[in-house]
Amino acid sequence: MPAQIRCINSGLEDLVFDISKDTLFGRENELPHASIYPTDQLVTVPKLITCVSRNHAVFRLIPGETTRYQVIDLDSTNGTYVNGTRVKSRVLGDGDVIEIGEPKNPKGIKFVFEQIEDNPKNYALLVGVDMKELRGVYPDLNGMHRFIRDRKGFDNNIKRRYNLRAKNEEILSDLDCFRNDATADSLTVFYFSGHGNYSGLKTHDGYLGPIALYSHLLGIKGKKLVILDACHSGIFANEQIVPPETLVLASTRKESLSWERDQASGIKPLYGGDFTTALIQLLSQQRHSFNLAGIEGSLREYYILAQNNQTPREAGTYDFEFPSQKIMF
Predict the structure, then answer these.
(1) CA-to-CA distance for 201 and 78, rounded, in angstroms?
(2) pLDDT at residue 107 is higher than 50
(3) Of the four, 233, 236, 266, 304, which is 20 to 30 A from 316 by CA?
(4) Helix 210-217 and helix 168-181: axis angle, to 10°?
(5) Residue 132 has pLDDT above 70, yes or no
(6) b/e for 174-205, b at 16 or more Cβ within 10 A?
């Protein structure tokens, strides 16, 4: 997998170089550059940037690997730092920040390591219905939107339906549109926040049950993630009816309630569903792509859910990677 180093200093944004070839990084000098590591290309910065040594570091693909890269400091004067820690050698992960010179030095140079991949297009439909009773639905909808928007592949592919616009026919029609666009590499997310009972999820004009939802997900290529924050949502977490390549995360058991509360202290309360709040906080700790297998157990231990004895349910496909975070500076 190709990779690049991109400078994020103001005024040096054009300094981007591919490190698929072994690369020596250093400062311009009249003397020839030499390194104990044979390299294929040389990248330099002007002599005035004195925090960079003439032979400062090597960026390279680890021998025998196809996707893993490393940086090697060449006994530089001011050091090489990865995510704030000075290193002699370090395997790099997508989004790692590499600093030349001490991190607090305003004259230092800061890079980000980026692995270049053909990201599949991902899709999301976010639905919220509060019936003017639940105070956490709209904040939950916004929170989930922000979280998904910041993961790779979802650009301009997130649909929202709230209250009057959240009717059964419209929701299912949106899912049918994903059938035409999703590929075998895509991830499609369906999220719901609102009321629920043994009939299903309370939409604006009725109830959306498991059979109706899953029959429309069935024709969508790729993997599907269903996240439900509603009372009795555990009726959807039934292994016998969950479609192939689909993971279901339900906020509670089929016979139990879901809860919401003021999620922030202060004069102006901010309500949110306990399950959605816990899920977003837990997932937001993962900057890189990650496997959702076993997240049910992690959620059960989360303090918000534990206070109400709310027990999330997980069903379906367990080999399930969620996209990495976009790299934004």
Answers:
(1) 59
(2) yes
(3) 304
(4) 20
(5) yes
(6) bbeebeeebeeebbbbbbbbbbbeeebbbbbe
Rg (alpha carbons) of the chain, rounded to whole number: 24
CA angle 270, 310, 229 (to 5 degrees): 55
Best CA proximity match to 93, nearest among 113, 109, 71? 113
Burial 83-120 (b: 16+ CB within 10 A, else e): eeeebeebebebbbbbbbbeeeeeebbbbbbbbeeeee
CA torsion 296-302-304-308 (nearest 10°) is 60
Q: Which CATH number fits domain 3-115: 2.60.200.20, 2.170.130.10, 3.30.920.30, 1.40.20.10?
A: 2.60.200.20
- pLDDT, tens digit, 9 for 90 and up, residues 202-257: 999 999 999 999 999 999 999 999 999 999 999 999 999 999 999 999 999 999 99
Q: Domain boundaries in the chain?
A: 3-115, 123-322
The string of DSSP letters for 35-101 reads: -SS--SEEEEE-TT-TTS-TT-EEEEEPTT-SS-EEEEE-S-SS-EEETTEEESEEEE-TT-EEEES
Give me the residue label for tokens 């003017």.
132
Q: How many CB atoms lie within 10 A of CB 133?
A: 9
Across 42-66, b (16+ Cβ under 10 Å) vs e yields: ebbbeeebebbbbbbbbbbbeeeee
Would you give the DSSP letter of residue 200? E
34 to 45, 76, 90, 149: CA distances (angstroms): 16, 13, 21, 45
Gap between the Cα atoms of 194 and 172, Å rounded: 17
- The predicted model scores a pTM of 0.68
